[in-house]
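User: I'm writing a short report section on ligand binding and want a predicted complex to refer to. Could you take this sequence and uridine-5'-diphosphate-glucuronic acid and write out the structure as tokens? A short remark afterwards would be nice.
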Amino acid sequence: MNINQVKNICCIGAGYVGGPTMTVIANYWHNIKVNVVDINQERINAWNDKDLNNLPIYEPGLDILIKKTRGKNLFFSTDVESSIASADIIFLSVNTPTKTKGFGAGQASDLRWIEISARQIAKYAKGYTIVVEKSTLPVKTAETIQQILNAELTSSIYTTESKSFSVLSNPEFLAEGTAITDLEKPDRLLIGGDDANAIKTLEDLYKAWIPHEKILKTNLWSSELSKLTANAFLAQRISSINSISALCEATGADIKEVARAVGSDRRIGDKFLNSGPGFGGSCFKKDILNLVYLCNYYGLHEVANYWESVVTLNSWQQHRISSLIVNKLFRTLSGKRIAIFGFAFKSNTNDTRESPAVSICKDLLEEGANLAIYDPKVNKRQIEVNLNLQSSRNIANDNISQIKKFEAIEDCVEGADAIVILTEWDEFKIVNWEKISKLMRKPSWIFDARGILNQKSAIKAGFKVWSVGKG
Ligand code: NAD
Ligand code: UGA
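Assistant: Sure. The structure tokens for the complex follow:
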């Protein structure tokens, strides 16, 4: 099958990866029908919402592309069966979280959604289909998918018509908040596989906007492992700089100056050297733990320990920040109001998965604090679910009275003893601290876990200030 024969694409999983990636493909291929399917009806309804402010994912630039393509050649539905049946290429973009029980719990990837999808493909696909792994997967998962497809093919139930598959690995490297630019101008696009024709078809799909030299081709296992390794390296840089932030605070050095000096060395580079409250997001921790699991599985225990320390340092940094907040506020938070500025795991996203805010807020709640939370994109229910104050089935917990979500910074800080900056939203960089200071109880603190505060103006306004990595 060549690219001109591709008429239908199906993407299983309408999440942070599936939604934006398929929107970009649909925007470059008006003659290909792109069906994005999901089992989550609520999510699909949100993707189809007329009001683009209600899309399930906030990504700068996404709404404009959705407006251009949705209902024309881009469709969101729960119709998994017929979308698979009509597809020439199927992208697997389902979630691959860490297993919570059974063998490998806490480290290995839970591949149940991948397996279910593979079985559905085997059952409903027609003719020849290219199956593309978009989800981040442990090395050798393509083999598992191929086995599932082959097993179903040779079973007696589905042999009424001929079908065949090629499995490719095509991991996604987009970061949330910059998904559209990352998809349109990636540093590289990686395709792993051993079927030259299938690789060529997928390559041609992307060549509509990605230059030839940016498309790397490898074998399946290198491709799968490269994705885990890329995330591990990025996370490792954050843990490295955060470890030095603590040393800066202890010695009077400044982490920003150290990062600038170190990052000026072209061999090191200046990206991913922002010290903060530790990395969050749905992937870094799970992907490193998956790597750790794989290393242990292959008997490489020293390698496993090396990578595990990146995660250990990350959670240490989060508890270190909670603990210093308690210490500075006279070692008790009982009944105190703490204003939390930002709950998303980074700016420009509404995603709160593994957000440092979750761990830090839980610590502060344990100390008896009342939390007043402001985030421009995260809703109240999401915060309550993350803090285990409400289950996803709407059952409220007793501690729910300890948190309140506010729509304006001024209301959030009213009577507060401290502000904790946990997400680097631009609006926090231009706050009028004089005005805010007047609304708070004294002494009032700002704990700047992102290093974005204009310290001089905050101190001038009467605040006591702590900034990450500033001794
Ligand atoms: P997500 O949870 O936002 O979306 C996954 C979607 O798949 C969910 O909506 C879920 O309902 C759906 N799904 C699960 N099983 C299904 C099935 N059988 N049929 C139909 N739909 C099904 O996850 P995500 O953040 O988009 O991540 C997806 C994958 O991409 C993961 O492996 C992740 O590691 C990887 N990844 C994520 C990012 C990111 O920035 N979020 C970046 C690169 C790679
Ligand atoms: C990350 C990778 O950057 C993507 O390449 C990858 O595709 C994706 O994971 C994935 O596999 O899911 P993402 O998690 O969306 O993307 O966001 P990042 O920009 O990498 O930030 C991750 C976390 O690290 C955030 O909490 C961020 O605040 C933190 N961070 C980042 C720092 O603390 N300092 C930095 O210098 C950079």
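A remark for your report: The radius of gyration is 24 Å. DSSP finds 17 helices and 14 strands in the chain.
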